[in-house]
Design goal:
By secondary structure, the protein is of the alpha+beta class. Among the domains are: about 350 residues, Kinesin; about 70 residues; about 60 residues. It contains 21 helices and 22 strands. Strands 2, 6, 7, 8, 9, 10, 13, 16, 17, 18 and 20 form an 11-stranded mixed beta sheet that branches. Strand 4 and strand 5 form a beta hairpin. The longest helix is centred in the middle third of the chain and has 89 residues. The radius of gyration is 65 Å and the shape is rod-shaped. Bound molecules: adenosine-5'-triphosphate.
Amino acid sequence: MAASGTHKVKIAARLRPRLDGEIVDENIKVVHGADSSAGGAGSTISVTNPRDLSQVFKFPFSSCYDENSTQEEIFRNDVEPLIDVVYSGVTVTIFAYGVTSSGKTHTMQGTRAEPGVIPRVLRTMFEKKPRTSPTGGVYRTELAVSYMEIYKDEVYDLLVARESAPKLPVRENDVGMVFVANLSSVVVKSVEEFDQIYSQATRNRSTGATNLNRASSRSHAVLTVEARMVDDVANTTLTGKINLVDLAGSENNKQTGNDSTRMAESAAINKSLSVLGQVVHALNLGAPRIPYRNSKLTRILQDALGGQSVGLLICNLAPGVRFRQDTLNTLNFAVRTKNVENKPVVNERDNRPQPKPHFSAQSVGQGPGKSAVGLQAVQAAAAGVGGGVVMKSRVSLAPAGRMSLAPGTRVPRASFGGVGSGNHYQSFVVPGGRRLTALHEAAAAPSGSGVTAEDLDARISKAVEAAVEVEVARRLKEREKEWQEEQRRLEGVIQEKTEEAKMNMMKERDRERERSMEMRERDMDRREAERSREDERSREMSLPSGVLTPLLKKHRDLDVELKERLVELERKFEKGNKETQLADVLSPVSKKKTGRAYVALARAHSEKGDLSVALDLYRKAETYVPDNIKLKERIIEIEWAVKNERPYVPSPKPVKKQRQRREKSKMRSGGGEEENAHDDALGGMDVEHEGGKEAAAAGHGYTNSSEFGVELTNEGGLNSSVSKRTYDDCLESDRVGLETPVKKQRIGGEEVGM
Ligand SMILES: Nc1ncnc2c1ncn2[C@@H]1O[C@H](COP(=O)(O)OP(=O)(O)OP(=O)(O)O)[C@@H](O)[C@H]1O
């Protein structure tokens, strides 16, 4: 043990005999190897494959016990050798594992007639109590017992009356050692004393009847026997422990027929066993984090699984096809556990008083006496004194103990001796093997005789500081790694959430699109429906074609006419615009001349019957003499004639005036016929031929101030013949039903029909 450094958990499988009422079959068997003795090497447990009965699963273990094996055989083969390990200062853990009613309690506790592992261990420990130390010193050896149960994931002290047993907290001390606070530990001086305490404590344990077991354990029970070996000469204490664990069985509630209370217990049992399986699995994988903290059971068993104790797992199996699946589960767990490696260490401390602590042990919560032990060992080693040799050889068993920032606190507290010091459950406490060794070596290396106390202190301080630095660096690295892992995890979560949000957005967008499409379709449908309704309505409201056709025709005609008018207006406007522009820049005299010229031209065309051209020319003339009333009338008359395709007869000149003019003309030149021919039918409007001279208006008796010789100025009335003609014409038009222009002229505030 001392030389190996690591120790794998040992497995022993035990198949219990058939109970009354159980059917015997060959589905689960123990097959012995060459060594046919009980628990002999080469044995296997064979289980038929539930899916293919022709196949058999074989599980080889170093110890396989069949239904005929005895308590004595198991104890002698697998348990008794471990007593020596305990007495060498190492912690040993034996736990019974299996489905409910597979015989765990029978194996661990047994009966009066067939005592199990626990009473046998105690008896043997008393028998084997060491009297002398390996170095020849005398030992005072004490055995102390503590007993607890984990019921529904709460810890209770079985050594106190059930009614007054409080829930006990599981704690970790400053160097990471797990213990159950306030758990009582009782020193036992004889087997009889133990039997008495134990039988009382067993009665305190939670049991209940199920379909499979009349006295089924409803809790995990852990009995610890601590052997404390004090060497008064060497002033050392060697502490070995054995933890004897009777686990509650995993349960299938269908088979157990559990009621609601049993179900709650069963859930807690199954959960803690499942965590136990996870711990073993994680250890097998070499996972960075082992989920010890997920249940009280695994927290307490931490040291037995991947810790610093020596382990033995007894797998209890029940026979028959009924338990075949449970048996396979148990054996699978055993196979995994078989690979778990522990690193046992010897637990010994130097009891000599600490001469001079170099850093505050108080600050880490332990008294100076206890915390100083580690330093004392280092100091002793550095000084080359005898005690250091013992320590060195002992602690070298632990190749990889946990590091601590407080090396002085690595030696466990004593759990013996009643209330003051023995009030803590210390089953899994381990000394700081590697740490201690490192310090020891660091401090001891340069030492030699003649070293002063100050030198020694300085060296130790230096060594401690170096170790602390290393430890700090390691922890920082660990923390950074954890932080990075956390970051990665958070990033993963963020990414996941972002993806989720994106997906949701896309889904929302799709939904929105679908909604708008639906709305559009609905809108189209609605419009379509409206259109159909409209059509329907118009069909219903439509008049008979005999009525509608003339109306529509009239409407169409009006439409065409309106359009034509508009075109005409536009054309006029355009032309007018050009003429207007020209008219704007001419002098009044030039305007008059131009106007006259247009009138003459227009008249010529009019006489030829070319009314459109004449009309055009009159209009042009109008732009130059916009205030000429006669001209306006003329335009209206011709427009009317053009529009109605009627002949246009220019109104004759008043006879009197014509005659007067002729006479005047004769008087002037004796031959003014030509000029008379050009006399304006507008009623005295004098015009010149194109390029000709303006007629001398004065000679006609018109005032110069009246442009174009407006008759109104001379005669104070209208040219009756013109008016008459136009009026007749209007009447004529009325007779034929055509629209006639009604000419009205406001003259001197008097409206006169023309
Ligand atoms: N090797 C054996 N020889 C004779 N009887 C046995 C043996 N193993 C178990 N039994 C009997 O089988 C029954 C169930 O055993 P036990 O109570 O030990 O099972 P268990 O695994 O502890 O069950 P639970 O998990 O429900 O507490 C008991 O009546 C016990 O006496």
